[in-house]
């Protein structure tokens, strides 16, 4: 009887030649029960006493006629192993699946794998990982069948149990996961990034303050407090009792009121001092008021026409030093997807942004069973999809589609309001 050893002793590069006693009609049911002999590179030398030529069989799970045991060679004491014409001793089993249904496990994880109901309650799939899998399925000629699952733990468990050929949804490659299953070629680097709303403009009343720097305002305030006092002292040194046109005694508050009015562009006082020193002080203050008012009006017009936004955090230290020190953390692709789908204005501008610096980089791949013999085939076609820039096209298509959907929903919502 055929003796089956532990599957984990074999890798996808192992070639096994087994000696067997069962007749051919007993071989096929036996092979379908064991992964090692049905999927791995295995051949079987039949020991029979009918003749001096011993046939060598192998099991092909995918052929135009379905799974079958094929006579690939013969062994004789004189000639050794003689390969049958048109066959190989260890043929490639996974270069063509001949339309066979291949089990995979996946759950929705935008923008990599998405599901929606179509006509007739048929599930329609999309996303960059699904499009990548569909391209590989087209090249290898197999049909995709998504095994129903209820959790991500079940998705990978079925891969471990070899019920599922693979889980074609992006997974981070981690040491504790490698103990349970293998990974395909690392086809994408999914980093952990932070996203947040860009800093907005200050309150409207503060727009009157920001055209000039804090130092300019401080020096202007000091000048406004100092110059009226100097002018008042200069006038009092010449006249001990000066009366205004209304007949009231001129005091410091009235001088301050007049100089503030000149700074704000109001008319000159009705009565100016007659002494030269006082007139020079007033002239100097008028020049200062004209320069100050011109600079302020110009900067105010520019700031209102082209508002200057505060700098936004782009790195982790800048995020820590920001006002709120908080942001949303997730992988960059997922955040780009959500921004395109939910946070894009009708004019194409985005309400959120993603920081330039990544917090934690990570390698991502597809989970496959340990030592799966088709790993090299999947890796080769996965690399071909990337080298042909098909995956980049899938990404762009997903972003454009979701941006268009967001803008359409916005216009629909606006029309409903009106």
From TrEMBL:
Pfam families: Lig_chan (PF00060)
Superkingdom of the source species: Eukaryota
Membrane topology: Multi-pass membrane protein
Molecular function terms, GO-annotated: ligand-gated monoatomic ion channel activity
GO biological process: detection of stimulus involved in sensory perception
Keyword Glycoprotein: yes
Record bears the keyword Phosphoprotein: no
Domain Ionotropic glutamate receptor C-terminal: 214-324
Assigned keywords, A-Z: Cell membrane, Glycoprotein, Membrane, Receptor, Transmembrane, Transmembrane helix
GO cellular component, one term: plasma membrane
Cellular compartment(s): Cell membrane
Membrane-spanning intervals of the chain: 216-235, 280-298
Family that this chain belongs to: Belongs to the glutamate-gated ion channel (TC 1.A.10.1) family.
Protein name: Ionotropic glutamate receptor C-terminal domain-containing protein
Annotated source species: Scylla paramamosain (Mud crab)
